[in-house]
Amino acid sequence: MTTIPGSAAQRREIGHAPFDVWRIREDFPILKQKVHGKPLVYLDNAATTQKPQVVIDTLVRYYETINANVHRGIHALSEQATQEYEGARETVRRFLNAADAREIIFVRGTTEAINLVAQSYGRTFLTAGDEIVISAMEHHSNIVPWQMLCEQIGARLRVIPFDHRGELSLEEYEKLLTERTKFVSVVHVSNALGTINPVRQIVDLAHRRGIPVLVDGAQAVSHMAVDVQELGCDFYAFSSHKLCGPTGVGVLYGKAELLTRMPPYQGGGDMISVVTFEKTHYNTLPYKFEAGTPHIAGVIGLGAAITYVQSIGLDRIAAYERDLLAYATAALDAIPGLQIIGTARDKAAVLSFVLDCAHPHDIGTILDREGVAIRAGHHCAMPVMQRFGVPATARASFAFYNTPEEVDVLVRAIYKAIEVFA
Amino acid sequence: MSDLRDLYQEVILDHNRRPRNFRKVEGANRTAEGHNPLCGDQLTLYLRVEGEVIRDIGFHGSGCAISKASASLMTDSVKGKTIAEAEALFEKVHAMLTTEHKAQADLDGLGKLAVLSGVWEFPARVKCASLAWHTLHAALQGAEQPVSTE
Q1: Are residues B38 and A391, on separate chains, in Cβ contact within 8 Å?
Q2: What is the predicted ipTM?
Q3: Do A51 and A246 contact (CB within 8 A), yes or no?
Q4: Confidence at residue A29, expressed as pLDDT on a 0 to 100 scale
Q5: CATH at residue B62
Q6: What structural domains and CATH numbers belong to chain A?
Q7: What total of structural domains would you count in chain B?
Q8: Is A380 a catalytic residue?
Q9: Which residue intervals of A255-343 are DSSP H helices?
Q10: Chain A residues touching residue B13 (CB < 8 angstroms)
């Protein structure tokens, strides 16, 4: 017989918080599903979040009543599609508090946003011998594009280390900033560890030396309010699908003065103003960076997702998830033989862990049979795994629709894994 | 619905806890590396092949219970076999892991390896169970590149 850690008082506190999670769960049709005959407990939100009905309805409504190409038709549908597509841009601008909607570029996802900056900015303004600073807790998508750039132009990658908790060393970071440093690209919230990095300070330190900074916000935007002007960053990237929106869409925010000086990333339709075989004139911002027909339905769906998340309120989401994380951390900490990987003082609701008796992949399979969806593996952050000396971790990552009761199911399922392997 | 015990049978748990031939082979003349990048499983196989016969075999590495037990069982079952016999066994195991076996006859000739027959119902785990076998195949073929299941 196993006991569930975590005091009743803690649970009451979450239950009594002014946040009706059970009503919110009603918005997500998928959460009613059963998996292997058990109610789904979806704790893989760092991989992708579930979609509320309003986003699903928006996609259906778009295809049923609006579908047309944008920025080119003179007919009613095209005008409506354009209006909604550009309306979503304005929604994103407000969401990030960008100064100008021209600073919002729609891309396929965070990965494409970073590749765009690495190639367009990097190949134009960086040269052999220059250095790019990233952190040791980057997702592969904020490592590989810079490595590719380094190979192309002969630049060098420098890496900010982190400590046993998973907190970046700002001291080491400062030492890495030299006259050779020409770009800094760091993750806002670590997908593998949950660490919330002090982005404002990171940006300030770089800006004192005139170095531009990109922030990978893929894991941040669904957990906290983000204000790019307050952060001061030059670029900010995030994906729609981690924010309750459709897959295949993401956003690159960039300061207009930088985007204006950057060449297009891809060539094609929509990104031009005049094309002749002698010379092509590029379109203005943001269209210069949106070659080809975009994911119109996805962009409009992202707009609906942002409106939905804002209707709950990101500050309330952050507070609720903080309580949920505290509850889950205490519950998992009490399991014998379990070690939490990533214990930063400022953390988003991500719990990476290992068991001394079972490999993460086996934990994942056993949890799945209990209806609990987690991720097992290196989380596209192999250097993070190497730093902690583990091949992989199991990761439970929470969203605002998760409940303390689901944490209890997770804990019971982990005990089941221990039972199999002990 | 398949039961967890179909996957984690006692024999598998035992081979996970106490893997057989978990050692480097003295005088090995064939080695191969296997990786399962998605879950981080890593495996090095050492073989001493004399003529056509696998005289000794051992492995090192880290991985989940399925991959470790599969490697342990594999080394046990191919030791003393000829290369052709081992390759034939590779084919049979591969079929067992990837297709439904309706009759006991499908598992004939597999001996202890039949404990892995539950894996096919867990598609995400097939590559865990097959890693050791793909690595063996590479070692016998004399492949230079590490094997990846992706």
Answers
A1: no
A2: 0.87
A3: yes
A4: 98
A5: 3.90.1010.10
A6: 8-50+313-421 (3.90.1150.10), 55-311 (3.40.640.10)
A7: 1
A8: yes
A9: 256-261, 296-312, 314-333
A10: 420-421
